[in-house]
Amino acid sequence: MTAETETRVTGQEWAGSSAAELRTAYSSGTATPTEVLAEVLQRIETDKPLNPYHAVLAQQAQAAAEASDRRWAQGQPAGPLDGVPVTIKENMHYRGVSYPGGWAAENPPIAETDCPLVSRLKEAGAVIVGSTTMPDLGMLSSGVSSRHGITRNAWDPSWTTGGSSAGAAVTAAAGHGPIHMGSDIGGSVRLPGTWSGLATLKPSHGLIPLDAPYYGRAAGPMARRTDDLYLAMATTGQFDTADTTAQPYPACDWTPNALEPRGLRVGLQLDGGPGLPTDPEVRTTVEAAAEKFAEAGAEIVEISPIATDEYLTGIDQFWRSRAWSQYRGLAPEEKTVVLDYIAEWAQGGAQADGATAVEGYEAMLALGSRARNMTAGLDLLLSPVTPVLAFPAELPMPDNDPSTPMAHISYTVPFNMSGQPSGSVNAGRSEDGRWIGLQLTGQMGQDPTVLGAMKWWEAVRDESAAPAWQELERSRYGY
Q1: Three-state SS at 163
Q2: pTM here?
Q3: How far apart are CA 64 and CA 339, in angstroms?
Q4: How is residue 155 annotated by DSSP?
Q5: SS3 11
Q6: Is the pLDDT of residue 86 over 70?
Q7: Does position 479 have pLDDT exceeding 80, yes or no?
Q8: Going from the N-terminus, what domains does the chain have, and what CATH number goes with each?
């Protein structure tokens, strides 16, 4: 290692950079993938108390970074993410790595093949540094897990990360590379995004293929900045027959371009309907964002709540039934280690008969139809991501009540059911410093519209709404 290289590694200059900045550095020889990986691994060691990883794939990442070094030295990068550090969520199959799903069952399954998303990342030369934590079954909006313990927020360990893409929120905020892949069935990318100051996207249904597709579930990227979401989508948003629910979308233009709101018809939803009331600071923050869109020439149209008690209750019952089908198959000793919250919630599905489960499934379909109908004719919909601010890290859910698990996802879950693209981007902070996100939702297949509006928002939002990533790095890493 040369003196120059030693300075670059110990100086920690690159781990929190954007993918575009890394590509420029690799192309010019200012940095190499192995040097950047060394920085990321140092951060991983420092951030162990935050508990963001199910598995650190140091050996595999080192081999990938060395191969990337050679390609860049030859001027032949494999793709737009060649040498770029990324993470994947625990439930994403990486050949040879276990995927326990957040709970402490013995002998978790080990992936025999890579899932489509991981295959696309590897083909593009990305350096996958690890598999990030999730709560039991991915059914909590926190980082509380019977297998991993508590995953804590990078900004303040007393706050929740959000979930279920809990570890991904930490690694994104802490700058363990620029791109972090999560999954979202009711808000599991957007919720941790809003509570960590991130930019995230739940794409149109099936745009990123899953090899274990499930109604409402989507894989999506999480990052410090919207530009990195574009690159993640360009790489992973490719049709794959492994996802039996996916269909080829018309080609999307993933060039990072800010979308000026002038002439757009933009909906505004400030009441989520059932569940927890919207915190006044959250409402004020979203109203202020809508005013900026209006000042830039958008037509603002207020809409009423999309979610209803009937639909959310039905979806909850369907999800409980599914969770019970998994929980009841555990050995007695395994059941004892599952989180009490999840065990109590899952047992609510024990008495559900087939008709009840079908009614729950129909509630998902009905809510999806209602969401599409109520947003028809809009270019975008603005809303809070969630009615509540980040809560204590030790709590599994905001209200800690297994009888009301849907109380905080009335803004997010309708768009899982409709399949529409829905992103989150930071819009402000509460008086006590907790981040508040803005949710932007578009029409099916119009993911670039959502990202374009998010990129525009990042350029015009108040300075206080832009997370101070360098400040976070100084506090965590001392530089």
Answers
A1: coil
A2: 0.96
A3: 36
A4: S
A5: helix
A6: yes
A7: no
A8: 17-477 (3.90.1300.10)
